[in-house]
Amino acid sequence: LKRGYSITTSKKTGKLITTPDDIKTTDIIITELAEEKLIESEVIKK
């Protein structure tokens, strides 16, 4: 994460999101950045 990467997971399942097929509209995703900063987002369009 220190190199600029992020980890995105499904809030519902906790599984990693690696492709657009892993989510659907209205899903909530969590993106983890460096220094344990988290962003929670709702998928509104695919």
Automatic annotation (TrEMBL):
Protein name, entry field: Uncharacterized protein
